[in-house]
Amino acid sequence: MKRRVPRMNDQESAAWLGLTSVFSLLPAALDRQLQRDSGLTHFEFVVLSGLQLSPEPTMRMTALAEASVSTLPRLSHVCGRLEKRGLIERSSCPEDRRATNVRLTTDGRRELIRSIPGHIATARRLVIDALTPEQLDALTDITTTITARLTQEPTP
């Protein structure tokens, strides 16, 4: 029996259901691999990566929340866990006492670098290697279009 979303035709329904399956299954698969190999969740990996890629040695929590597409409360909770593990350090922002700065520690950088090969191998196995070059180009076009639409949406 073929599933169909109400108020969508067969083509729209197949595309939408396929996309929702991917964004349900892929994060769980990435979490499993990262947890098994390095004890990190995918979101923790994203946070550490954001700090590693920052042009400055420290980032304000608000900038890191934006870079990781997160809310401040969620990021604060995750940073608490990462700080307990010695992977990041938080400190008061000297320019704005209300703000908090975050920086990647040497152990955090080491853990991130150690986790990258397995993460990339999983991304390749689950997504990249499953697609032809033409499909990769199409995926890039599709995700660019959707991302642009999502980032243009006004926040409630």
From TrEMBL:
It holds the Pfam family MarR. Signal peptide: none annotated. PROSITE patterns: HTH_MARR_2. SUPFAM superfamilies: Winged helix' DNA-binding domain. One of its GO terms (molecular function) is DNA binding. It comes from the Bacteria. InterPro entries: HTH_MarR-typ, MarR/SlyA-like, WH-like_DNA-bd_sf, WH_DNA-bd_sf. Residues 1-148 form the HTH marR-type domain. The keyword Zinc does not apply. Keywords: DNA-binding. PANTHER family: MARR FAMILY REGULATORY PROTEIN, TRANSCRIPTIONAL REGULATOR, MARR FAMILY. This is DNA-binding MarR family transcriptional regulator.
